[in-house]
Amino acid sequence: MTIRSDLRAYLDRPWGDLAVETERHRAKTYREDPEWTWRTAAALREAVTAANPGWPTPADRDADLAHHLHLRSLLDRAAHAFARRRRAR
Q: Could you give the CA distance from residue 27 to residue 20 in angstroms, rounded to a whole number?
């Protein structure tokens, strides 16, 4: 196989099917073991802090909070826009 044909084979994989199966797996896992999400997050945090003990820095935390607040404001704006559209009908 050539590099071009390898790339084409990779790109032609059924990525949509994979996404559907991934979501099914996540939903099943969450239904059967809701604590899995917390254990996974804790394991990821432990791995990151082992590799970078200074993480997150105060600046990282401040930036993260700023991003969360910005996202919240965008979600609030979207919710109000949808509510206005519903009332207008």
A: 11
